[in-house]
Amino acid sequence: METLIYKKLKKKTVKCQICNHFCVIKEGEKGICSVRENQGGKLYSLVYSKLIATSVDPIEKKPLFHLKPGSFSYSIATVGCNFKCAFCQNSNIAQMPQDHSGMIQGKNLSPESIVKKAIKTGCKSISYTYTEPTIFFELALETARLAKKEGLLNIFVTNGYMSKKVLENLSPYLDAANVDLKAFNDRFYQTYCKARLEPVKKNIKMMKDMGILVEITTLLIPGLNDDENEICAMADYIANDLGRQTPWHISRFHPSYNMKDRSATPVLSLEKAYEAGKASGLFYVYIGNVPGQSWENTYCHSCNELLVKRYGYQVENYMPEGGKCPECNAIAYGIY
Q: Hey, which bits of 115-240 come out as E strands?
């Protein structure tokens, strides 16, 4: 399928406008994501409708804790990614074209079929996830339009590096996003993700301004993005620039992909980041990938009443319709 947002330049060169890399691509070449190719002076998506993964997931797995807790989300992905994270948690999907000489695998599934499957499996939403959904923007957009007509919610699990034009096209249909804020310094982004921090910050703010429910996730990697001053700065940024109601998930790193030389995140580091989030005034701070603790529960920001109890993906929801605290009637941030 021809890419929806790009510019034709001289000598059959094109400029992709799907994400903030804004790749200039010569004829016969591909962009950084490895799934958009210049064919005769036109830019084509190589993954439209080629799904490498479909699954019915608990919404908490995204992780989204403030959108219909306990519900299920029909989750889809194609191969490819516009980031090259050394610590990629889904490298077999995200980095397949890069690591296997341009290999693109997937089963053809139309937007109509995706929506039908989501409804048939009892899901309340569709999640565009497992890799950066911006790279399969055309499929996501058409699916989201159809899903919205059927009363389904649409969710992006994203690195936040999409272009402004992509967000403007998606915003009428996008209900929520979990955005990876991978670190709070640009050097980390350049070195370990081959990207930049500032576009991510701008896009998160834009999503909030568009009325999209936003939750933030940070994978805490020992010795790389866990400096206490940096963590405090990140917490303050979330609280002050995005709003104290913005949920922040601090996730435990496990060695993977090209970063198997580091140990898993010490629980003490996660606890310190949690405390930094609370000290900044954030209402909702969570620790992920550490089962058996109470760090994934949701409490009322006003009276501290337990609203949602979680143990892994087992959820007990104590909130009445509308997200009201049963104790003090304060409204919890989210879609309930």
A: 125-128, 153-158, 176-180, 213-220
| 11 shares its domain with 135 | no
Q: Who contacts 122 (Cβ-Cβ below 8 Å, separation ≥6)?
A: 72
Domain assignment of residue 326, yes or no: no
Instruction: Please say whether the beta carbons of 75 and 68 come within 8 A.
Output: no
Taking only the tens place, the pLDDT of each residue in 200-213 is 999 999 999 999 99
Rounded Cα distance between 325 and 295, Å, is 19
Question: How far apart, in Å, do the first and last CA atoms of the chain sit?
Answer: 36
Q: Quote the Cα angle for 157-163-164, to 5°.
A: 105
Pairing mode of beta strands 24-25, 53-58: unpaired
For residue 295, give the nearest of 250, 257, 334, 327 by alpha carbon. Answer: 250
Q: Does the pLDDT of residue 5 top 90, yes or no? A: yes
Q: How many domains does the chain have?
A: 2
| Spatial contact of 256 and 293, defined as CB atoms under 8 Å apart | no
Q: Could you tell me if 282 and 210 lie in one domain?
A: yes
Whether the link from the prior residue into 63 is cis, omega within 30° of 0, is yes
Spatial contact of 72 and 124, defined as CB atoms under 8 Å apart: yes
pLDDT of 291 above 80 = no
- The pLDDT tens digits of the residues spanning 57-83 come to 999 999 999 999 999 999 999 999 999
- The total of other beta-carbon atoms located within 10 Å of residue 48's CB is 20
